[in-house]
Amino acid sequence: MKLSKIAVFTSGGDSPGMNAALRAVVRAARYYGIEVEGIYRGYEGMIDDDFVPLDERSVARIVDKGGTIIKSARSVAFKTKEGRQKAFDNLKKHQIDALIGIGGDGTFRGLHAFNLEFGMPVIGLPGTIDNDIVGSDYTIGFDTASNTAIEAIDKIRDTATSHNRLFLIEVMGRDAGFIALRSAIASGAKAVMLPETHTEPSELLAKIKQSGLNKRKTSNIVIVSEGNKNGNASELAEELKSMDDSFDIKVTVLGHIQRGGKPSAYDRLLASRLGVGAIEALRQGQNDIMVGVRNEKLAYTPLEKATKEHHRLQDEMLHLIEILSI
Ligand code: F6P
User: Fold this and answer.
1) Which residue, of 106, 114, 119, 175, is most buried by count of CB atoms within 10 Å of its CB?
2) Nearest atom (ligand 1) to Cα of 179
3) How many CB atoms are closer than 10 A to CB 181?
4) Rounded to whole angstroms, how far apart are CA atoms 321 and 312?
5) Is 112 in the pocket of ligand 1 (CB under 6 A)?
6) 139 Cα distance to chain centroid
7) For the domain with range 5-141+263-308, which CATH number is right: 3.90.1150.10, 3.40.50.450, 3.40.50.2000, 3.40.50.300?
C-alpha cells in the first residue's frame, strides 16, 4: 500500500494516554519518512476540514499530559452517508493514504464503515477508560482512571469510617464494569454492583447486614458501576433505605474526574507501544484492524470483531471480590 501521508485523530470520550499514543503515531511515522496530518475533534474535524500538519516536534512534551491536544468529539454527522462522503473528500484533498483513529467502539464502527465504503486503509487504537474493547487486555486510559477512582475511594473510606457510614460510590464504565471491579478489589470494598452480574438490591442488603455496622465493622463501601442494571448509586440508595432505614447512607458519584489527570506509567507505555504498532502494522500492509495488547504482546483484531463482541470480565476477578469481602 502507498504510504506517503497518514492522518490521525482522537474520538469519543477522551482518556489519559491519548496524547502519548498520538506522539507515538507521529514519531513512528516520521521515523519511517511518512508525513502526518492531525485532525481536530475526531470525525467532526474530518467533515469540517480541520486538519493540522504534525511533525516530531509538534508532539514534544505531551507524553505526560491528560486529555488530547487535538481534541475529541462524538460525531452525529459522521453516522450519515453525506457526512462520511465529506470526510472522505477532505482526506483525498489532503492526499491521505491511511487513517488511524484512537478511541472506543464507536470510533471503530466509523473506521470500519469508512473502510468498507471508500476503501480507505484504517487502523484503530483502543483509547477509552472503560476497558470494554475485545481484542486488548487493556485500553489506553483504564489504568489511570482506575487509579484515580481508587485514590478517591481511599479518601472516602477515611470519612466513612469516622462516622460508621455506608457509602455507595458510583464509578464510570458505561455498560462495562472493569473500573468498578478493579477499584472494588483494590480499595477493599464490601461489594460491587456491575452491569455484567445483576445483583438484586435485596442480596446487596443481606451482604451488608451480614457484617453489620458495629464496633468492629465501622464502615461499608459499595462500588456501583454507572451501568448497573438495578439502578445507579442514588437509585440504589433509595431502594436500600426503603428496605431498611437503619443505615446512614451517603452517595458519591466520582464522574469525569476519572477521565482526567496525568497518565500512569502503564498507560504511557501501552500508548507508546500501540502507536508505534499502528504504523508498523500499516507498513506490513495490515488494514481494518485494531492494534491491542494480549498477554503482554501486540495483538491485531479485525475492527468488525472489536465492535461486535464484548470484552468479558475475568471470572477469577469476580471470585476474588467474593472471598476478600467477607
Ligand atoms: O466512554 C468513556 C465514558 O467516560 C464512559 O465511562 C461514560 O459513560 C461516558 O464516557 C461519558 O460520556 P460524556 O463525557 O460524553 O458524558
Assistant:
1) 114
2) 6
3) 27
4) 16
5) no
6) 6
7) 3.40.50.450
- 143 given a catalytic annotation: no
C-alpha 170 to ligand 1 mean position (Å)? 13
Hey, what amino acid is at 158? D
Catalytic residue among 14, 130, 137, 267: 130
In angstroms, rounded to a whole number, what is the distance separating the alpha carbons of residues 81 and 27? 33
In ligand 1, the atom with minimum distance to the C-alpha of 227 is 8
Angle at 172 between CA 166 and CA 175, to 5 degrees: 110
Looking at ligand 1, which atom is closest to the CA of residue 258?
Answer: 4
Quote the CA–CA distance of 180 and 226 in Å, as a whole number: 9
Structural domain boundaries in the chain: 5-141+263-308, 142-259
Region 142-259: CATH code: 3.40.50.460
Pocket probe for ligand 1: among 108, 140, 174, the residue whose CB has the most ligand atoms within 8 Å is 174
Is the Cβ atom of 13 under 6 angstroms away from ligand 1?
yes
Q: pLDDT per residue over 216-271, tens digit each?
A: 566 799 999 999 999 999 999 999 999 999 889 999 999 999 999 999 999 999 99
* Dihedral sign from CA coordinates of 174, 148, 199, 163: negative
Partners of residue 251 on adjacent β-strands: 168
1 band by pLDDT with thresholds 50, 70 and 90:
confident
